[in-house]
Structures are given as structure tokens and as C-alpha cells.
Design goal:
Length: about 375
């Protein structure tokens, strides 16, 4: 990347100074090129479509999560930096994408923060009660449609830079030797946005930063209040687990039209146990599909109240689909409409993505519109408690 020829949104020429999100410096495996070439993109734990291989599924996402988890180094001057950058960016000599104003920050930090805070009590209640939460149509209470459209454009800009890679799962086919086999997820491509993408996707990085800065403490404090007001924990179906906001995982994924999907899975199969390599607790998915309409498919199907014994079958020993009790389990289908945010417990909630735009023609324009963009942030538990 020609970092030197770019002017960053903060006006500094250097790439690192533009990073709102920084990775811990001394970990060489966190360098993007190495990451991109060596790792699959989670959820690598998704059962593969090849049923006979799905047992002994390697908890690859756990391992790769642990290794590639990003550390959040929020600049204390986040707000003033972004304010500055949006007012000064018109003076920038950007060699990159500036025709469509892609480097102008559109997100209002204050608005997003206050929206999240206002919704956080309902998020906490719904998560505690049902294991998931989502906003509802018209999906404008988190980010306005203009911002969603911009985020999609930034996702496309990253794609045009070649940042995405084929998404795949890996299964252990020989438990003794640990031999693995790789299964591509046809039509699914993903990347892990990080601070170095700020030049291309400033609003995306800002959204990630604000969400991580705001949500975990807000949700934790609702739990604290519940405890001290005497209503206690465990009143809902799932006990609350405090969230950490110093580390996270992120994935920006595009699911192509023509029937691409994610098989049913649980994101964090290992659970939040002591010694677990994967501490991901909360999955937060923001959809970037402003023109989605019913009939386009690609819904996120969330299974509700699936007992642990059945969840185990999803990722291993038995084909989940053959399990009668599980089949009768209730589910909700959530459209991937632009501006929709879905939260659910990463270690508890089975889900899948239904076929995206299965009947799309191959016309390039149509495919582009029907590409399904989703930005996922995984927030870890602050400590293993279960
Ligand atoms: O894009 C979605 O709606 C869900 C994707 C998903 O399940 C995952 O990335 O683990
Ligand atoms: Fe998932």
C-alpha cells in the first residue's frame, strides 16, 4: 500500500498515526500480510457442508481468535481527532478515493454513542432473557441510512484493494495426526479490518471503535445495577458474563448472490471456560445492505433456547438436522437490512445464514447490489466464569 502517497484523515502522513485501532506492537503474527496468508476467517467452526467430516471439527476459530485478537488502543483524543479530521479533510490531498468523499468522516461520534447508550438497557434485558437482541425496522436508531451507505462503500473500497480472502472452515480429519482438511465457503469472502484500513474505511474503523468503547461498559453496568437492586442474576435464560473492551475480533464479510450461505453453527464452541482459548462472548453484527428487500434471502436465522446438549450436536458428534428435538426449536429470521444491528451470545446461540439471493442472475450489476455485506465484532468475556 502506498502509505507515503496518502494523506490520512488526521492530516498526518504516516500510516500508524492514523490508526484508531492499533494492534499490540510486539506480536509479529499480527501483521496483516502474515495474517491474511495463514489464516482462515472465523467462524471457522461452522459445520461444513460435508456432513461426514463435521465431527472432530477443529476449534480453529478459537485458536485463530486468540492469536489474531486485536487489542484496542483507543486514542484518548478520539473525538477531537475525528472532529478535526472531518473539518480539515477538505484540505487533504488525498490520492485515494476522494472523489466520492470516502475519506470524509460521516459518523457522529456523539450520536452513535448516545444511541447505543439509550438502547443498552433493552439490549441487556433481551440478551439476558433471550440470548439475542436486534433493533427493528426502519433500523435508523443506531446509524442513519447515509452512514450505512458510506460504510458499504468503504467495504467495497476495501474489496477493490484486494483485502478480502476466500472464507473457509477447517476440520480435523485425523484425530491422531491432527491432519486437517480445508473447506471453502463458496461465495463468501472476508477480511479483518484494522487500524491500517483507516485511510480507506475511516467510518468503519470509527464505528468499531465507538461500539467497543461504549457497549461493554454500558452492558456491564446494567448487570451491576440489576445485581445491586436485588433482582439478582440468572433470572433470565442465560447468566450475564461481564465483557472486556480491551480486545476484540472483527470480520467484514461479503456473501455473494446466487445462493451462498453459512451453515448452522455456534461461533465460540469451546465456551467461556477456564483454560478456553476462545473467550468470545458477544457477537455484534451490523448489516450494510441498504437496498435489501424481502425475497432477497440471506436472513440470519437464530435458534432460540437450544439446550447445551443439543448445541454440542451442532458442532460435532451428530448432524444437528437429524435431531428431532432441535428441529422443533424455535427460531427467528432476521433480514440483513442496512442499519440492522444484531447482538447474540457467541458461545450459546446457534445460527445460520440462509441462501443469499438464490435466484440472482449473473448480471454483474445485480450481483453487486445483492452482495450481502456484514460487519461482525466479537467482544470477549472479561474472564472465564462458567
Ligand atoms: O452474517 C451473518 O449474518 C452471520 C455470519 C456468521 O454467522 C459468522 O460470521 O459467524
Ligand atoms: Fe456465526
Amino acid at each position: 500500500m502506498a502509505a507515503a502517497s496518502r494523506t490520512t484523515a488526521s492530516g498526518a502522513g504516516s500510516r500508524s498515526s492514523s490508526c484508531l485501532l492499533r494492534r499490540t506492537p510486539p506480536e509479529p503474527q499480527l501483521h496483516r500480510r502474515q495474517f491474511s496468508s495463514s489464516s482462515g476467517y472465523f467462524p471457522a467452526v461452522a459445520p461444513t457442508q460435508h456432513g461426514h467430516h463435521h465431527h472432530h471439527q477443529q476449534h480453529r476459530s478459537g485458536a485463530s481468535c486468540n492469536q489474531h485478537q486485536q487489542r484496542l488502543a483507543l486514542t484518548l483524543t478520539l473525538q477531537s481527532t475525528t472532529r478535526q479530521s472531518s473539518s480539515s479533510s477538505s484540505n487533504n490531498n488525498n490520492s485515494n478515493n476522494n472523489d466520492d468523499g470516502i475519506n470524509d468522516i460521516l459518523i457522529s461520534t456523539e450520536e452513535l454513542q448516545s444511541n447505543l447508550l439509550q438502547l443498552s438497557k433493552s439490549m441487556f434485558d433481551s440478551l439476558s432473557q433471550n440470548g439475542y437482541w436486534t433493533n427493528t425496522s426502519p433500523f435508523t436508531n443506531i446509524l442513519p441510512p447515509t452512514v450505512i451507505a458510506t460504510l458499504r462503500n468503504q467495504a467495497i473500497a476495501l474489496r477493490n484493494q484486494g483485502r478480502y480472502e476466500q472464507s473457509y472452515s477447517e476440520s480435523v480429519i485425523n484425530a491422531i495426526t491432527g491432519e486437517t482438511v480445508r473447506f471453502d465457503k463458496p461465495g463468501v469472502f472476508a477480511c479483518e479490518p484494522d487500524g491500517a484500513d483507516y485511510d480507506t474505511a475511516p467510518d468503519m474503523l470509527l464505528y468499531m471503535t465507538i461500539l467497543l468503547q461504549t457497549l461493554p461498559p454500558a452492558l456491564n453496568s446494567h448487570h451491576q445495577n440489576t445485581m445491586s437492586s436485588g433482582s439478582g442474576s440468572g433470572s433470565g435464560s442465560t447468566q450475564w458474563t461481564n465483557l472486556d473492551n480491551t480486545a476484540f475480533n472483527a470480520k467484514l464479510a461479503v456473501t455473494s448472490s446466487g445462493g451462498s450461505k453459512y451453515p448452522r453453527h455456534v461461533d465460540n464452541v469451546s465456551g467461556i471456560h477456564v483454560g478456553s482459548k476462545d473467550l468470545r462472548k458477544l457477537t455484534a453484527i451490523l448489516y450494510l445492505n441498504p437496498s435489501w428487500t424481502s425475497g432477497d434471502g440471506g436472513e440470519l436465522r437464530i435458534y432460540l433456547g437450544v439446550p447445551e446438549s443439543d448445541r454440542k450436536k451442532i458442532v460435532g458428534e451428530k448432524d444437528y438436522k437429524e435431531n428431532k428435538e432441535s428441529e422443533t426449536s424455535a427460531f427467528v429470521d432476521l433480514s440483513p437490512m442496512g442499519g440492522r444491528l444484531v447482538l447474540f451470545y457467541s458461545d450459546v446461540v446457534p445460527h445460520e445464514v440462509l441462501e443469499n439471493a438464490p435466484h440472482a442472475t449473473t448480471a454483474a450489476d445485480e450481483e453487486k447490489l445483492l452482495d450481502r455485506y456484514a460487519l461482525t465484532i466479537w467482544i470477549p468475556a472479561s474472564s472465564p466464569v462458567e
